[in-house]
Amino acid sequence: MDAKLAAMNPSNAKAVLLACVTLLFSLHLWRRLRGRRSSSGPPGPLAWPFVGNAPQMGNAPHLYFARMAKKYGNVFQIKLGARTVVVLNGDSIKQALVKQGLEFAGRPDFTSFKYISGGDSLAFGTATDWWKMHRRVAQSTVRMFSTGNARTKKAFEHHVLCEVKELLQLFVHKTKEHQYFQPMTNLVVSTANIMSAVCFGKRYSNDDEEFLQVVGRNDQFTKTVGAGSIVDVMPWLQYFPNPIKTMFEDFKQLNLEFTAFIRDKVVEHRKMFQSSAIGDMTDAFIQAMDQLRDKSGNPSRKDYVTPTIGDIFGASQDTLSTALQWIILLLVKFPEMQARLQLEVDKVVDRSRLPSIEDQQDLPYVMAFIYEVMRFTSFVPLTIPHSTTVDTSIMGYSIPKNTVVFVNQRSINHDPALWVRPETFDPQRFLSQDGELNKDLVSSVLIFSQGKRRCIGEELSKLQLFLFTTLLAHQCHITVDPARPVKLDFNYGLTLKPHAYSIAVTLRDDLRLLAAATGQAVSEETYSCCQVWTLGVYIEFIFIDVNAASARETNALRVRTCI
Ligand code: HEM
């Protein structure tokens, strides 16, 4: 046989190889078609052996999904490696996430998810009774350190003011030095600093190496955990040298470093912890999680403070800084809209004071602009991947337990049945003829997801984006480098990141109002305003009865700080 093969001339060998490949492919097609006829699963495009539909997704899976939804309908399935993935679009999203919430609330057992917060992540872990409890504690803690009541809102506003002041000083300095500069990293540090003040009572300077190392690698993180990440569906790629393996090694390393950073903060907080003086979100979590542990009667139960704080710090700084990057990009792309924002803010606020939370209802154009940024860019195009927790069905299609489910938020935001000219950036679409914000229409924008896994930072995010945008419009003017006009291109991941762009920032007056509002004694490392903020903070926790099977809320634990 060997001798026969050796004797075969090269063109015959090629023909044999081609025949084998054709045979294998036909076999695969036949099995696929037979499988499809015998199941009542959703329709979908034909998949290649081994890789499935991965190569067809290209650099923008959400746009590929939009094309497939046109062809196969709002529920279709693809193959990624050996995994079957159901993709939900349009009206099937509400049906699955809200009406059949628990059935679609799981997370897949993806390789990458196991490395986030040492596998104990609230956001990337699947739906269990413990997840439900941690989620409730996290939700109420976030609320009570941001939008919970008038006092916490003011405290949060103060953090934003402090950070906008620092940022504008830096931007003006950079403009003087370089004329045009790239603001992306500064926006990440600035957003991370707001959350750092809330979570740890501490801020970092823009060139703090350790902080930059921790928060400056969002791109790597979101690329790996976004829907359609290759290593999750073809885990065998980890086992031999290739670019995906290298990227995954970096991902593991950045998660280790991130967790170590958060763990250090939690250890410091535990050393100083006093239940009578809850100073920041970490203190509050230590209190709440310890209560849960004591109630469970298992003193050696894992400490979930680090993963939960890590989730909140990580989820907020990546998403919010991406939102700000898009807001500034669109402000300079459409200077006439920036001028209209400034006009509205000047009219309502005037030049003698700073904009504040109370102005929100009188600034409909600002809100319309922010909602249009979220709708148009859909910068979280798909949610974190979901999975089914039981055998179920959706829109008449059967979906087995543990099926991976991608939720295409962008399909709602660009649905021509919902939006006039969805591909045009037009904040005016949210305003009535009398200039009022159309509340029904803004609630149609889908970027924080829905149902059991809905983002817990939605209210905080809207407040922060409102304050940031209004303060920028009131305090400065932003222009783009004419040599490099901005484009709307992006890098795909859990969040869509705009490509780098350069801007110049000039103050409209001076920083006197911001300096007065934040107090001149703001030091580099610690906010004096953080201390003012903790005075009299009143936190209301939902205290969960861990013994009750339904994890129902049984009591309210009230923590009053009395510094
Ligand atoms: C503009 C800003 C933000 C956007 C667009 C956003 C969007 C999202 C989305 C789409 C999800 C996934 C939901 C799903 O899988 O169905 C999510 C989950 C989550 N977000 Fe946000 N988010 C933002 C800001 C924040 C902030 C500020 C926080 C924290 C304070 C936060 C904390 C979380 C957490 C903990 C989860 C996991 C929830 C779970 O799995 O149960 N997010 N977010």
TrEMBL record:
The prosthetic group or cofactor this protein requires is: heme
| Assigned keywords, A-Z | Heme, Iron, Membrane, Metal-binding, Monooxygenase, Oxidoreductase, Transmembrane, Transmembrane helix
> What's a single GO MF annotation on this record?
heme binding
Any one GO BP annotation for this protein: progesterone metabolic process
Q: Keyword Transport on this protein?
A: no
Q: Which SUPFAM superfamilies would you find in this protein's record?
A: Cytochrome P450
Q: Which residues bind heme?
A: C455
What start and end residues bound the annotated signal peptide? none
Q: Give the domain of life.
A: Eukaryota
Classification via InterPro entries? Cyt_P450 (IPR001128), Cyt_P450_CS (IPR017972), Cyt_P450_E_grp-I (IPR002401), Cyt_P450_sf (IPR036396)
Q: Which Pfam families match?
A: p450 (PF00067)
Gene3D superfamilies recorded:
Cytochrome P450 (1.10.630.10)
Record-linked PANTHER family: CYTOCHROME P450 1B1, STEROID 17-ALPHA-HYDROXYLASE/17,20 LYASE
Similarity-based family: Belongs to the cytochrome P450 family.
Q: What is this protein called?
A: Cytochrome P450, family 1, subfamily B, polypeptide 1
Q: Give the organism, scientific name.
A: Gasterosteus aculeatus aculeatus
